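Appendix B. Extra example for self-study. Work through it before the problem class; the solution is given directly after the inputs so you can check yourself.
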Amino acid sequence: MNIQRFQAEVLPLKDKLFRLALRITLNREDAQDIVQETMLRVWDARERWETIESMEAFCITICRNQALDFVKKANRRDVSLEEEAPQSAIADVSPHEQMVRGEGIRLVRQAMDRLPEVQRSIMELRDMEGKSYEEIGLLLGLGESQVKVYLHRARKKIKAIIEQIEHYGL
Amino acid sequence: MDYKYIEQLLEQYWECGTSLEEEAILRSFFAQDDVPESLLPYRKMFVAEQESVENVRLDADFDKRVMALIDSRDPHQVKARSVSLNSRWRPFYKVAAVLAMVLSVGMAVQQGWESPQAGTVRQQNLQVMDTATVTTFDAATATMDAAADTVKLFIDNNQR
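Solution. Structure tokens for the complete assembly:
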């Protein structure tokens, strides 16, 4: 019974949790380990499942705390993911332009990774997971207005980076 | 084509004044290839975010690994295994053997205390051995009967 519920409600959250953990650790392998540990912790807490209002929020909170603990211990911050942009996103342009555009995207991604952790996590939850300000506030233990302030700062920095790339080149 | 609406939405987006639905409109707009030159720079951010959603995924091996770990740490899980007829009867054999041994020793000691004369010890020992053998056989038979009843009851219950 619990196994079925775990497979139906917890396992499908793996990608979401992975993105969130990656946004904090900035390292794929560490993020994967954190998601695995999160899943096991959620399983170990199965006696409490009935009292949990939202399984997703429960998993996200555990994952985030795990990732923050990890970063605190390992003191690994501001490490670039160095992921390559897939061909589909920069198709039908010349190789030179493709390289320039790909480089632009890489720089924006790098700028996103260099944001303070709370701003990175809020951007992730809002822009990639489509969460409302209220939901983000509950997950991060912040007020809605605080969430907006952090997100505003994050978007402002990204906008500045984009305009800098545009005006001064790569 | 008029992109004023998109430009307005984008301005609101930087100020955190857009709703989730409006942000979805912006994402769909920037996901297409036909983006005007003036808005092209901002496409980078939406593409970077979209790529993150598409590329940052865990494969099916991860599921298998997690399920195996869960399986290994669950102490209450009952696993089915095949049991041979011989191993099924083994506990009854053990009980019968132990009972036989205890009864033999008990009878031997009792007989020894009741008839301590040295001259008759050998004869009495032989007698004790006979008695013990009979007793052991009786005990083993009784145990086997009880075990057979248990198995019959088990099979009946299973059939029901």
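Self-check: Chain B has a mean pLDDT of 79. If your reasoning did not lead you there, revisit section 3.
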